[in-house]
């Protein structure tokens, strides 16, 4: 075969193993054609010499907010997707968000297609956020949208006035999505606990950014996570609890899994690397803590960080996503919305952090590729599984994305050999459309040297494209919309009997 590109002299890492050195990847027409040795080179074959570095699948980031209506200074498609490839992520799943007054999902989808079409540097798909799940949407639109447009997942909120669903509505959605084999993502925080605490804090004038963490305590995440699991158990439907930040909430997932319920969980780099102390004012800027406002909030205790790392190691978490949901800081419509006439009001700060570009390097830094084995927190295959293969499988892209296997899209990251990729994360070196990173000053052990999307080099760290010692060499608009199939991890029902119910009881009302 005449290969377009051969990736040579790398150490290939899959979700199950680190392959022996000496293997090459042969790429033809954007697809991995074969993995082998001494592949034939023609006059038109390009070769990438990895110089012994690791090669991993392109990242799949399954939780990304771009150009969302409610986020005027958030990241957009061009800049967000550009930052994705600069950080080794070749596929993103972003949200098409229904407003309460949207009676149909079709105009919502068209709106998000219009914003992303021709803009993306990486491949992408959508999840729907449902805020008004009418019978017509659940019974008629979702099945058609899954079949015709490949949208096979939804996200539901248990908090935020503009998005929250009642438990009863959540049950209706779960019963509809389980019939379709769709994945339901749930943002689990107790709305009423939080609303009550915020009112009390405001009454007492405790409105600075760091009170945000106090307003959304771990028990609010804990209670709602358990409730989401109970609803899933009652409906016999699989769910994934998104962006989990704390140990007790995570332990409910672990407990549900030991009872063989299809409960999955996601966490994000900021919950693994940062603590709520970051919400405190800096000497130069009393409002700087606003940069770290996200929900659930960063937690107080290092024990939560330790617990979450354990959850990544032992399989409690299925995926690791960025929850890239930033707002600019120094903009009157961004984080500064929480500063009114010089008085801070944390409850008005838009929630969410940037993290699309830094997700892979931060995690890769904790593998034996960058640390002595006894200090590494994740094995290399587990890194691949959490950041690429599992999200691809979970969201209906298995076989195509997230794996270094013949037949899959040739999406991959070539890292730097040895310590040559070491960097300190700086806002100035990032490619997103917002004005800060919460990881400013954090050292990473490596950075993608090349990112390849469907056989095309789209990021080349050594190309001096922008005069900054690194560059995006892909093209805006090269990213394609992905029609997804059914998820492979979260499918089917358990057929089990919910705890506390009798056999056959549910059949009276289902
Ligand atoms: O703080 C966050 N995560 N805001 C973004 C929206 C969400 O809930 O994922
Ligand atoms: Zn959320
Ligand atoms: Zn989110
Ligand atoms: Zn650049």
Automatic annotation (TrEMBL):
Keywords: Hydrolase, Metal-binding, Phosphoprotein. GO terms for cellular component: cytoplasm. One of its GO terms (molecular function) is dihydropyrimidinase activity. Residues 54-458 form the Amidohydrolase-related domain. Pfam families: Amidohydro_1. It is an enzyme of class 3 (hydrolase). Its EC number is 3.5.2.2. Gene3D superfamilies: Metal-dependent hydrolases. InterPro entries: Amidohydro-rel, Hydantoinase/dihydroPyrase, Metal-dep_hydrolase_composite, Metal_Hydrolase, Metallo-dep_Hydrolases_sf. Its cofactor is Zn(2+). It catalyses: 5,6-dihydrouracil + H2O = 3-(carbamoylamino)propanoate + H(+). Belongs to the metallo-dependent hydrolases superfamily. Hydantoinase/dihydropyrimidinase family. This is dihydropyrimidinase. The modification N6-carboxylysine is found at residue 155. Carbamylation allows a single lysine to coordinate two divalent metal cations.
